[in-house]
Amino acid sequence: MIIGALLPDIIDKPLFLLDLGGGRLYSHNLLFVIISFLIVHFSTKRNKSISLPFLFGLISHIILDLPYVPLFYPFFSYDFPYIEEPFIYWLRKLWTDPLVIITEIAGLLFILFIVVHNKLYHIRDITNYLKGFNQTLIMISKEKEIPS
Ligand SMILES: [Zn+2]
User: Fold this and answer.
1) For the chain, N or C: smaller number of CB within 10 Å?
2) How far is the CA of 6 from the centre of ligand 1 (A)?
3) 28 alpha-carbon distance from chain centroid
C-alpha cells in the first residue's frame, strides 16, 4: 500500500524537477493505475494480499491529488502551464500555498507518529522494523499460497 501510494510521485516528481513533464502526467492517470496494478498482480502470481493494497495506495494517491489530475491521459490532452524553474516553483509553493503547507505538515506529523509509536530512534531499529514488516508480508503471501 505504501509503495502504491508513493509510486505516482516517485515517477512524476523527478521528471517534473528535470523539466520533462508536468509533475502529474505519466503516472497520475487511470491507464497507469490499471497497467501497474496488472503488473504487480501477475508478477506476484495473482497474490491479492499484495496487489489489492498496492491498488488501494495508488487510488488513494490519485484521489488526494484531485482535481489537478490528468485522469484520462494519454487519451485526452491536458495543458500544464510551462514552468521555467520547476524546483524554485515547487519551493515557492511549499512556503506560500496554505493547502500545500497544511498537507506537508500533516505528512510530517504522520511520519513522526510512526517513528515515535514504533520507537524508531536508531538506524538499526528502522532496519529491524522494515525487516519485520517484510517478514509479515512474506508470511501473508505464503498463507495465501497454501490451499485450504
Ligand atoms: Zn501525486
Assistant:
1) C
2) 8
3) 10
